[in-house]
């Protein structure tokens, strides 16, 4: 997802029922320091704030931890089928967020028994992934990636490591080759779809992702193997090929870029926070604490769009109309002062909302598999390059310009060259 323009560049379209005090989710200051935005919104509007999406489209941003958990627990009030939205008349065909709100026959938009059926297939397919085998595969991938830059004494870890490792692991889990132009194109298109840069076309990229996965499903139906795609195809629920394609898009997108950002955000914490610096080179407990703290303070998915009100209701003192769009402010909820009154996040607490909450949260065991990938990536890097340090001042690190995802543009590091 992408943010464009400045706050003043997003007037509400004529006829939109936007509040006069609605705040655009845009602007460089918000993209780089979103926690400041969340504090300001909470102070001015309370736990539910009126906001403007790209193009001045009105929505509600849920900032409070209790309010986010309430929304995610009550599907009968806040449902996932976006066809309920009361703003479709104002949405242009090239709207940047269309890949995420335009209704698709995907598990993301299903409800009730149909959602349980589709999510059950995904859960079954992911349960077939051997976590020890995944850790072994991730370590082999990490070894190859590190070998590519270990002799130089310097590296850019976001592109060359944090992004590449889960990409290779996920496509391997789904039965795709880990190398090749079409696989790389798929990963590039997923990145554009999730976090488009200026000049990118997220709608076209999303279309190409679907085309590549349709070919994968066709190949696996003809020749199944020990992979996620084949297990989905062979499940007794007998999903159609198109249902599997749509659900694979959800699985791969949720596993790849968020995990990459989780890896990089954790490495940034380990390399910049003196609490971890003393024992960073091999202290597995510190790595575990850093991984969890990154989910609390720099969660890879800051905001998730969305839920749609089934009927008029109240939330956080606000009147939500039937068909209104509700954006889950996962990052804001994780730092809600009601749960952290002293602004101190306990790294041992895992009640964060980084994998969402309720029936539509990341299906089990997806969070466990993401943890295997992230933990293996961080530990392997620190074991092989124990004197790893930032190659720039911490203040020079820049976050990607997105209000949706939380990840660095780059993470340049230096270390003693390793000759192999």
UniProtKB/TrEMBL annotation:
Region annotation (Disordered) ranges: 1-21
Listed CDD domains: CYP_unk
Record Gene3D superfamilies: Cytochrome P450
Family stated for the protein in its record: Belongs to the cytochrome P450 family.
Protein name: Cytochrome P450
